[in-house]
Amino acid sequence: MEQRNLLVTGGAGFIGANFVHYWLAQYPQDKVIVLDALTYAGNKANLDIVANNSNMIFVHGNICDTALIESLIDTHQLNTIVHFAAESHVDRSITGPDAFIETNILGTYSLLKAAKKKWIDEPKAQGNPTPEHRFHHVSTDEVYGTLSATDPAFTEETAYAPNSPYSASKAASDHLVRAYHHTYGLEVTTSNCSNNYGPYHFPEKLIPLIVTNILNDKPLPVYGDGQQIRDWLYVEDHARGIDLVLNKGRIGENYNIGGNNEWANIDIVKLVCKVMSEKFAANPNLAERYPNALSAIAGKTENLITYVQDRAGHDRRYAIDATKTNNELGYVPAESFETGFAKTLDWYLDNQQWWQPLL
Ligand SMILES: NC(=O)c1ccc[n+]([C@@H]2O[C@H](COP(=O)([O-])OP(=O)(O)OC[C@H]3O[C@@H](n4cnc5c(N)ncnc54)[C@H](O)[C@@H]3O)[C@@H](O)[C@H]2O)c1
């Protein structure tokens, strides 16, 4: 597609905002309309660094508002939707699944309905050809369920077996996207990505939670035995993967995006502890900036680790086999875990004004 006019849903959230930063830097001629309801997880400040870019427009609204989506497609001549908006925290889906059903399932349905009407039905009724378009749906590896330590990693052929209300709602939305392609010919792609980490990650999620708790000298909660295994990918590498799917992916296909980087949760927590202790030892200014971080100042962050009751139905292991995406699209993550991790911790240390109000 020569010029993309994109609707980025959930663009004020963690991955969506990083994607908007990435996209405007890569494709300065494209127009990006961000639609975000600014739930607790959405934060307009995540878009501050592109706020003055005249090719970015922020719209405060809900993806369930089909009429709004239709009018945005018309007004901005949108030809691409990249759909990030979701309720994304598994713990919240256990205590309050309603919002997950509404946003993740009904919200995705609302976007599909609007896209079908504007890109397929209306042109057809007017005797015009279907315009070039793309609906890209951002999904997760969690839809595939859980693995034992020795199971092979998830491929795109792995049967869906979601175990939490969050992953079930994402799986439902993936199925709707697939059905809109097979039934109506909507030009869709879906990517299923592993755990992301990086800047602008809401501090309820593992890595920013551990970092910010260390800086406030609070206990570092670890679920169960801490041996749950996740694959971790630097968030900008997720954006690069979506870029490749948009530009080279085949319509109607799913693509796994992963970092080939499996870690047990407890080892991630211990790694954050170790790196934070090292940073405090190497830089005396940190003790001045973070006087509450007593354990970090004393080099004893691991003393804060506290095992807590495991999450209900907690999946044991996720692992992504991204062979298809690597071979077909030439995808390789750019960031090593070492460099991405160091950048991420530095970003939290440098951006207290961003995360402190969110605690
Ligand atoms: N975080 C991960 O590690 C990860 C991994 C794989 C896939 N994903 C998927 O990527 C997407 C983005 O995840 P994230 O971690 O950035 O989530 P997030 O919770 O940080 O951000 C979600 C954004 O969506 C917005 N939103 C929520 N409901 C909305 C609604 N009804 N209408 C409009 N906007 C709404 C929120 O305000 C927020 O800005 C999700 O679809 C998630 O399932 C996340």
Indicate the structural class: alpha/beta
What is the 3D form?
Answer: globular
Which small molecules are bound? Answer: nicotinamide-adenine-dinucleotide
Number of helices: 13
Strand content: 15-25%
What Rg do the Cα atoms give? 21 Å
N-C termini distance: 42 Å
At CATH level 2, the architecture of the domain at 5-198 and 234-259 and 318-334 is: 3-Layer(aba) Sandwich
Query: Which fold does the CATH topology of the domain at 5-198 and 234-259 and 318-334 refer to?
Result: Rossmann fold
Largest sheet, described in full? 7 strands, parallel
Low-confidence stretches: none
Tell me roughly what share of residues is in helical segments.
40-55%
Nearest-integer average pLDDT = 97
Number of strands: 12
The SSE order reads: EHEEHEHHEHEEHEEHEEHHHEHHH
- The side-by-side strand order for the widest beta sheet comes to 3-2-1-4-5-6-10
Multimer state: single chain
CATH superfamily of the domain at 5-198 and 234-259 and 318-334: NAD(P)-binding Rossmann-like Domain
Determine and state the CATH class of the domain at 5-198 and 234-259 and 318-334. Answer: Alpha Beta
Cofactor: NAD(+)
GO molecular function, one term: dTDP-glucose 4,6-dehydratase activity
Family: Belongs to the NAD(P)-dependent epimerase/dehydratase family. dTDP-glucose dehydratase subfamily.
Organism: Shewanella metallivivens
